[in-house]
Amino acid sequence: MSYEKITTTTEVELEKLRYRLLAMGELVEAQVRNAVHAFSSGDPNLAEAVLRKEAEVNVLEMELDNACAELIAKRQPEAIDLRRVLTSAKVVSNLEQIGDLAKKIAKYTTAVNDLSVVQARKVTEVEILASQALAALRDALASYSKLDTTAAQAVIDAEPTLEDHYQGIARQVLSFAMEDSRLMSWSLMVTAATKAVERVGHQATKIAQHAIYAAEARDVRHSRSVASSEPAVAE
């Protein structure tokens, strides 16, 4: 078999892998959206549907892990093709973790419902944060799919905004509990669910980091923390 034929076959399989990754991304995005809506509206049926569908996410994770391993074994890709396969496996893990976050949010729906506490102010704020986190996820997956490092960097740069939004919600729900101690359990659960939403954005950042590595062999996973820890130098 000629090198040209091997390269063509590898590209075909990489393209199939790319489409399956995007399909998994769409599934976990829907899972998070439904989980947040269930939490905000107190819909136990929708929360249960999210929990049932988690099995599909787990199946996709195993299938894509196997696909990555088989592609390496059969095609022995090199350079950027190898980076694409290796980072695809990591993106699969990130997506599976987002599925787990959706499950966590769905479970908090039942827990909050059991408290018989109504606090409407939580609804729009958590859903707005979810919209931002899911937008980051879509942008990250698009940047990975296209190996667009500029778009990937934009996702990374936007993560502090999500963190700040989460902190704002956490402070607000804590203030409700300080005013009325009966809301303490509710406050803790809303904060935990909101943190899970914020973590979706964090996983999106990781996907964006993988996009940069796949495209340029440049590891930016710890660049922000390293930069922030460097001592100032007097001029």
Describe the structure.
- The chain is mainly α.
- The chain has a single domain (3-221), classed as Phosphate transport system protein phou homolog 2, domain 2 (Methane Monooxygenase Hydroxylase, Chain G, domain 1, Up-down Bundle), CATH 1.20.58.220.
- Helices cover 87% and strands 0% of the residues.
- The chain has 7 helices and no strands.
- It has helices at 3-41, 44-75, 79-115, 121-146, 149-179, 184-216, 223-229.
- Helix 1 (3-41) packs antiparallel against helix 4 and helix 4 runs parallel beside helix 6 (184-216).
In brief:
This protein is mostly helical and 235 residues long. 87% of the residues lie in helices and 0% in strands.
The helix fraction, in percent, is over 70%
Name given to the CATH homologous superfamily? Phosphate transport system protein phou homolog 2, domain 2
Mean pLDDT: 89
Question: Could you say how many structural domains there are in total?
Answer: 1
What's the CATH C level? Answer: Mainly Alpha
How would a textbook summarize the main sheet? Answer: none
Class from secondary-structure proportions: mainly alpha
Overall body shape: elongated
- Ends apart, CA distance between termini: 61 Å
Whole-angstrom Rg: 20 Å
The CATH topology label is Methane Monooxygenase Hydroxylase, Chain G, domain 1
Sketch the topology as an H/E string, one letter per element: HHHHHHH
Low-confidence parts, pLDDT < 50 over ≥5 residues? 1-7, 225-235
Beta-strand segment tally: 0
Q: Given the structure, what is the number of helices?
A: 7
Binned strand content: under 5%
